[in-house]
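Bug #77: duplicate submission created two jobs. Keeping one. Sequence:
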Amino acid sequence: MRKFNYTALKNMKWDSEMMGYVAIIHEMKGKQVLYLRQKPETLDKLVELAKVKSTESSNEIEGIRTTNTRLKQLISEKTTPKNRDEQEIAGYRDALAVIHESFEYIPLTPNYLLQLHKILYSHSVKDVGGRFKNVQNYISATDSEGKQFTLFTPPAPYETPDMVLELCDEFNRAIAECEIDPLILIPIFIHDFLCIHPFLDGNGRMSRLLTTLLLYRSGYMVGKYISLEEKIAKNKNLYYDALELSQAEWHEGNDDPTPFVKYLLGTIISAYRDFEERMEIVSDKDSAMNIVVKAVETRIGKFTKADIVALCTSISTSSVESSLKKLVRNGDVKKHGNGRATFYTRNI
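Kept job's structure:
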């Protein structure tokens, strides 16, 4: 059975690229403290938007989806799930809400993992929530001809409870010793969790919930304001490639988690940059038009009204719409298409 020894990581020699990523995130975390003191109403809007994007994107990666209208209604709890996809979306919503509201009080233990998994499936007809797998599962992929093949075989069901316990204990011990940066420990834990694949279903979504939880517990709150899940969904091929590279010889303990660590750190950096961009756009007391102009100036190529709304969290959607119309009339922005196909390009 694969063993875990995170204390040994303190003797690892990480390359300059990885350590550069860590240094950048440390700097961004310092800026985060300053931003969090500004405009609480703006931050509240970012939180609500991130909840929607995180819930949508984490499920979308697994092929679970609904319409935008239904998604927003489910997130705001203004409707009940109508089908299996919506049941799982509602479960992710609830699990994410628990993490947002109580992360300080959610230690990393097998029992808490099982409780989060139970919440994830609390609306589902699937009878799998809150239990480790009882049959062997496999991580599969599809080749260029459309044929499915086994990419990785996780540990057997009888090994799973002990492995999850050891994994949690090792992570907690390493965090308590403060000799290894949490930014390295967290991706390695998530990678090992995904290799164990402890549940019959929901392992990917659980890994993303745990990423958010562990980052919050270490003071990295960017996922509260910018959806990490959305960034993973937009680059999911890179996510799967990094995971596959890191899984080689995992059972023997000879795996190299570096590709997955770098991927996740790069995702965190991208989220922090988005957070800073949004805060800079709305940091000054400015007119709605000037806020929209600053947002438009950050776009290259095509952009939509939704892109600008996401940036301009300090003003209403109607203010964004009227400002865009004025920019179109003035010739600063060009409108293309109609209805849902509408997009814009800038002339400024």
